[in-house]
Amino acid sequence: MLKLNCEISGVFLHELQVRMTCSTGCYALWKTLDHLAKQAGLQTLIHKTDGPEDGKQPRPRPMTPEVILRELGQIQIGDIHLDTTAGQRLVLRRVARPNAEQSRILAALKLELPERLSPDHLL
């Protein structure tokens, strides 16, 4: 019985360590993206007022990592399949052109999207 409890505890401990490592890495990436967005001066295009009674004009807010990831996550990736005269199929994996908001975010973060994600290959 004691041996069984140790094995279960060992598996649980390993899973806990994996989750902690993953969580720490995600948090570090989140904070890095937040720092880069602030450094680039990224602002949201949705303007909110500070309160209903303040009477001030709406002002832009700093863009959060959540908004950045949501916008960039909408960039499409697609495969183009072309039949060759030899009877094979050529597969071209391409990245769609970003829209205006996505381009603004990428430019502010000084990032460029590749045209292709992998080498072209035959099936």
Outline the secondary-structure elements.
Blueprint (H helix, E strand, L loop, with lengths): L1 H39 L24 H8 L4 E7 L5 E7 L4 H9 L12 E2 L1
Antiparallel strand pairs: 1-2, 2-3
Describe the structure.
With 123 residues, the chain is an alpha+beta fold. The protein has one domain. The chain is 46% helix and 13% strand. The protein has helices at 2-40, 65-72, 100-108; strands spanning 77-83, 89-95, 121-122. A three-stranded antiparallel sheet has the order 1-2-3, with no helix packed on it. It is flat, with a radius of gyration of 23 Å. The N and C termini lie far apart (54 Å).
Helix and strand element order = HHEEHE
Average predicted local confidence, pLDDT: 82
Strand order of the largest sheet: 1-2-3
The class by helix and strand makeup works out as alpha+beta
The major beta sheet can be summarized as: 3 strands, antiparallel
Number of strands: 3
The proportion of strand residues reads 5-15%
Cα radius of gyration in angstroms: 23 Å
Uncertain residue ranges: none
Helical percent range?
Answer: 40-55%
Overall geometry comes to flat
- The helix count comes to 3
- Write down the domain tally: 1
Distance between the termini: 54 Å
